[in-house]
Amino acid sequence: MPPLECSVSTWAARTGSPTGINTVHLAYVVEGAGHALIAHRLWIPAFQLADALVRAAMGLSASMRRARAKGRIAIDLLSEAIRDGVRFDFVAGDEVYGGCTVLRRWCERIGQDYVPRVKKTHILDFGSRGTFTCEQAVKQFASTRWHWRAASAGKGSKGERAYAWYWFDTASPGHTLLVGKHRSSGKLAFHYCWTPPVLQPDFDV
């Protein structure tokens, strides 16, 4: 059965304002079949909520003054989807969500696998090998070509997305680092992953 992915991301629509309108949306993705938007919610920056004129123009309540983090909105959307009977093999998202500790801990608490993007400066503990950022870990442990495994990331708008992959184990149970390297540009993409430790496969490092 193809993997069932939940993708959480932020969509910004440009308006007359330089800030635009931001929406956190939840997409249900099935490999080889397609994807569908199943939930979304408006995200309003704190500086807009602090401006009485902007709140009035947007039709927001005067009591609504505290901005919610995108990660917490994502938790709301995921919770609603799961209550409605939707199940995911894993949750994905961009760096905003990968860097949200609250969202990651919530996924772990309910036993939901995840594989969001994180920044190259995201710090990981490799136990006796030391503590490194994602970028440093690649230089330290995966400097030679034979370490990497070639695999497609699927077809995109410009054709096949050819990547080489390296999967690192970490000192934290269930937590791994998955690195994708674009085979043409060499650009790296870092994914911080969690799988319940009892289901964890073998890794390269």
What attributes does this structure have?
205 residues; alpha+beta; Nucleotidyltransferase, domain 5; 4-stranded mixed β-sheet; 6 helices; 23% helix; globular
How does this structure look, described?
The chain has 205 residues and is of the alpha+beta class. It has two domains: 1-116, Nucleotidyltransferase, domain 5; 119-205, no CATH class. Helices cover 23% and strands 37% of the residues. It is built from six helices and eleven strands. It has a five-stranded antiparallel beta sheet. A four-stranded mixed beta sheet has the order 3-2-1-4. A two-stranded antiparallel ribbon has the order 6-7. Strand 6 (123-125) and strand 7 (131-133) form a beta hairpin. The two termini are 28 Å apart.
Q: Which of globular, elongated, flat, extended, rod-shaped describes the shape? A: globular
Q: Strand pairing plus helix content: what structural class?
A: alpha+beta
Which strand-content bin applies to the residues?
Answer: 35-45%
Distance between termini?
A: 28 Å
Output the CATH topology of the largest domain. Nucleotidyltransferase, domain 5
Please outline the major beta sheet. 5 strands, antiparallel
- Name the helix and strand elements from N-terminus to C-terminus, one letter apiece: EEEHHHEHHEEEHEEEE
Low-confidence stretches: 11-19
CATH class placement of the largest domain? Alpha Beta
Whole-number count of domains: 2
Total of DSSP H or I helical runs spanning 4+ residues: 6
CATH architecture of the largest domain: 2-Layer Sandwich
Compute the gyration radius: what is it?
19 Å
How are the strands of the biggest sheet laid out side by side?
5-11-10-9-8
Q: How many strand elements?
A: 11
The overall pLDDT, averaged over residues, is 82
* Helix-residue proportion: 10-25%
